[in-house]
Amino acid sequence: MKSCRVPGRGRVDASRPVTFTFDGRRYGGVAGDTVASALLANGVHLMGRSFKYHRPRGPVSAGSEEPNALVGTRRGPGRFEPNTRATVQEIWDGLEVTSQNRFPSLSFDLGAVNDAGYMLFSAGFYYKTFMWPRGFWDKVYEPFIRRAAGLGASPTEEDPDSYASRNLHCDVLIVGAGPAGLAAARAAAVEGLRVVLVDENAEAGGTLLSEPHLQIDGRPVWDWLASELSVLKALGVRIMTRTTAIGYYHQNMVGLVEKLTDHLPALPADTPRERLWRVRAGWVVLAQGAIEKPLVFNGNDRPGVMLAGAAQTYLNRYGVRVGDRPVVLTSHDSAWFAAFDLQGAGARVQAIVDTRPSVREDLLHEARALGIPVKLGHTATASSGRLRVKSLRVNPVQGGRVGAPVTIACDAVLMSGGWTPSLHLFSHTQGKLAWDEEQTTFLPAETREDCVIAGAGRGLWGVQAALEDGAARGRGVAAALGKDSTARAPRVQGDRTGTGITQIELPTDLNAGRAKAFVDYQNDVTAKDLRLAVREGMHSIEHVKRYTTNGMATDQGKLSNINGLNIAADALGRPQPQVGLTTFRPPYTPTTFGALANYHRGDHFELTRKTPIDAWAEAQGAAFEPVGQWRRAWYFPRPGEDMEAAVRRECAAVRGSVGIFDASTLGKIEVVGPDAVTFMERMYTNPWAKLGVGRCRYGLLLGDDGFIRDDGVIGRLAPDRFHVTTTTGGAARVLNMMEDYLQTEWPDLNVWLTSTTEQWSTVALNGPNAAKLLAPLVEGVDLTEEAFPHMSCAECTVAGLPARLFRVSFTGEIGFEVNVPSPMAMQLWERLWQEGQRYGITAYGTETMHVLRAEKGYIIVGQDTDGTVTPYDAGMGWAVGKSKPDFVGKRGLARPDLVAKNRRHLVGLLTQDGSRLEEGAQIVFDPDQPIPMTMVGHVTSSYHSEAVGQPIALALVEGGQDRMGQTVHIPMPDRTIAATITGTVFVDPENTRLKI
Amino acid sequence: MLLIHCPYCDETLPEVEFTYAGQAHVVRAADPASQSDEEWENFLYIRSNPKGPHYERWRHLHGCGRFFNAVRDTISDRFLTTYKAGAPRPELSSLLGDRT
Amino acid sequence: MNKLVSSFTAAPLPQGAVARVSLAAPVARLVLRARGDLAALNAALGVTLPSVVGHRAGAGEIEVLCLGPDEWMLHLPPGQVGAVSASCAALMGSHPHSLVDVSGREVTLEIDGPRAAELLTLGCARDVEAIPVGQGRRTAFDNVTVILWRDGPAAFRLDVWNSFAPHVAGLLETGCRELAAEAA
């Protein structure tokens, strides 16, 4: 295998070989290599196929902006990730890398037929091609697009890795640890400031890692870097590498993703793969540097064509010569240095082709001295080579005319169209950009965040300038935080600065309409596509972007946006600032769902609240259902029972003897204070003033619009103390609503609210034997009809435990709710369970509770009501204290629509054929009317009722209370069911069963 | 994620401790029965939706529990001020003056 | 016999070298709400109620944290609840207030170790380090309302309602393992 490693160059450790596989073939690299640098060291440029045309592609960059070299990485079962940038992924022994978007193999790919069809797949082809015939959409086009769409293959197994998250507060966050970031960190690192310096690379240093010829303060740059990093650490700066700032959010909240294990051969225990950091910084310094622009010419995407700066990085940082016979093609001085560096590393640079008619004398001098041919005022018009570039066709340009071509044989083309500041994070802040005519680029201007930009990120070129700007910005930030910093930038020797011009697509003597001059490599968008989009009427850059998909790939337009803008502006004949840049959005680089979800998966995916009885229910084999955040026992199946059988048995047990039910999830609010009764009068529809101590009452809570919000039984424990219960799901909402009225409407009331939902666990006993079971266990209250009638409450002792005892019924049977402090609930439950055995006590769940209450016509707020139901609609006008001057909802109830005729009323339904209705089913009066029918209501609750001997239902029906006995119809997909409107109480309408 | 100054705790804290509570200074009439249907409709439903400074309420739910008022610029999502419930509505001119 | 035992029984809580979590012994907890002149209540409680949100006071075995402008959390030995309630109740007529026993509502997790504060950053968005030692705050941990008491630079207590405790403890446990691996 050919080795392109240059001994003695780079920061990689040649003494530590690393073996990995690419498409099943073993390759050797060394510690410190990325997949891209290691493959390039083996002479491999072909690393992927493009998305649309399946064109062979190699890496064009050496960093996170890479659009082409996307690969799949695998680490054993489950650990597969598509679309990893080969330029970023570090290698380790055993890493499995696969290429993407190819079939059957990378070097021979059937999808490349799309490339031959280039003329068909022009801008907007999705919109044009798949329009007709209409019938083709489902069967032909959509399956085709679905198969073709998407980059790489999604992993199919569950991700076995863990992901983490932390919050971090600091005074200064510096993004980018190149010269500007390092200098800013040094200047900001004064006593008392918490400084965090992050960099997406494996090591800090940025461009310094690629420029070993520099001297800083008289020392070789890498020595200086090492000592500077240790100084920063000693000063308390937190340096985080492999950490990408993915997004800049409001008020200096920056999201970071730290990669912790992707570079390690063995996974350490208890270590997450990635950690999401939510950083809140006093000040942010963006020192992200600049990104080199590709040149746009026909054939600028062949493997071997790459950015000149990338070639320099591969050589100087990784010790890899990307070509033996490269051609340099440029419109900027910086690429000349790439040519010099490669020539110095044993390459024979075939030519430096510069689009500019003249360049700096010192560059020409050096090229001559190194024996590199120079062609000024030239364009590139084509390249050749299928899987690797073989030649570059260049032509002189004079007076706008493209002259005769010359073909230069080569094995690499190193291009540079100049540099553009990395504006992404700045853009996230909604910062304003300013067009810089001289540099033909946008520079950051204003942001409302406490944020500054340092170095190349604001158009300053050269290491010296970056260090000085970084130091100045660091001092400025320290000053803004009230600290004095005197840090000064060190002196740089050997700094290479330069200038250049901005090109749109390079001029050509060939048919420009057939040119494959790529602007967006990843989405295969060419200059021709952009011009076509403008011709077809896309005059806004946002439209051009969407029509062509330029800049919409996973690289977020890092290489393509500015070239795309320049070409679109040219096509529109308008200056760039009038055309504008499209918006960069988070994340800066592709981010795993794992990092975003972090801890919230598996058992920790969602909060699940359990009562103290939950473990007992689980041991009994209960089925559970979620209610709000709670999980509640749904039913308790015995062996062989399905849900219906279990519920039937549980219902019969409650109506026949006694059932026990965990009602602990009910919301509870303690309302205390001299104005407690006034507050209750104002909040609830019911009157409370005359409710005696030791009595309780069903309370109905409305919104000020007059609609039912919540309900529950409320006990008066003392003149100034109420025990309020709410629905399970409504607990937090009701407390919030009460606090709202109390704090902002009636702040004069001396009453306070305390949530006691979890102070008290509630065990309900219901059934004809409930009192018999409970009475012997109660001290302080006689459970007789006289001493403790229905709707009584008392503080007493039950089974030796301090309790609040309520005589209430949600079933129509004799019922008690025993509240004890939660830590004692299981003790109570077990005692009742044990004592109840003689009565055949049966545990029942929420389903049986629902059936039993429906048989009595008791509503469930949120099931039988939907936020548009008044107490009168629900048939509960009796709960409204009409003589009260005011309560929440009273004025609302008088609104014209709420007193209108023909509102939907809650009624009972009995089907005429004895079948069970579906909850949510729509109701009509006339089943023979044409479709669409006029719907007059819907079924809210429906159950099989053992007590009634047939299914029962509750429903909201237009004018229902005036239609007793009438027939309505419920159209279902297979038939229409007739039902008779009845009252809502199906069992024991006289409430005789409530008597002890 | 926003930073919000709680006027009761006198601390500037992350948004996750707070809940939004709608437009501020929507007063429930002392005697709702005296309200016309239109007035009551306004009280219940009609809200402003400004581009710029917005008077609104927040609650420091996971903190002191208090409802308070705020002026937030809906363009920048920045709070111009926060103040205690019952405190007078600050004049916009004074708030905007501070910004320049 | 009616000893307050926790209804929260987690798997053994993590005992990492750099951060530890343990379940505190049961304690009585009272929520006091009042406003205006607090002198009479101070006298009844035997402790001066702090008036700044987040500040604490203590006297004897009673510990108080101001949670809001008119709200305090009291921790005290279970045996003292009766006496404290009675002396406060006697003031109801002259000094309106609300005293509610929530001893059974929540549990306290003790968190300590050199990286205790960092452990809390897994769930706390606010700057935990900025809470002065000897103070406390009601805040959110992984979206759960908690009361955080800072007893020392690396010693915290976290009060959390029973049903939220497994969720909170679960994340703390994960964090302890993470921090231990980091320190190793």
UniProtKB/TrEMBL annotation, chain A:
Segments passing through the bilayer: none
Protein's name according to its UniProt entry: Sarcosine oxidase subunit alpha
Region (Disordered): 57-79
Family of this protein: Belongs to the GcvT family.
Aminomethyltransferase C-terminal domain segment(s): 904-988
GCVT N-terminal domain mapped to chain residues: 615-884
Domain called SoxA A3: residue spans: 516-597
InterPro entries linked: 2Fe-2S-bd_N (IPR042204), BFD-like_2Fe2S-bd_dom_sf (IPR041854), FAD/NAD-bd_sf (IPR036188), GcvT/YgfZ/DmdA (IPR028896), GcvT/YgfZ_C (IPR029043), GcvT_C (IPR013977), GCVT_N (IPR006222), Sarcosine_oxidase_asu (IPR006277)
Gene Ontology molecular function: any one: sarcosine oxidase activity
BP GO annotations: tetrahydrofolate metabolic process
Pfam families to which the protein is assigned, alphabetical: FAD_oxidored, Fer2_4, GCV_T, GCV_T_C, SO_alpha_A3
Keywords assigned: Oxidoreductase
Automatic annotation (TrEMBL), chain B:
Domain of life per record: Bacteria
Any coiled-coil regions, as ranges: none
GO MF, one example: sarcosine oxidase activity
GO biological process, any: tetrahydrofolate metabolic process
Alphabetical list of Pfam families matching this protein: SoxD
InterPro entries: SoxD (IPR006279), SoxD_sf (IPR038561)
Protein name: Sarcosine oxidase subunit delta
Automatic annotation (TrEMBL), chain C:
Pfam families: SoxG
Protein name per its UniProtKB record: Sarcosine oxidase subunit gamma
Biological process (GO), any one: sarcosine catabolic process
Listed Gene3D superfamilies: Heterotetrameric sarcosine oxidase, Probable tRNA modification gtpase trme, domain 1
Domain of life: Bacteria
Xref: NCBIfam families: soxG
GO molecular function, one term: sarcosine oxidase activity
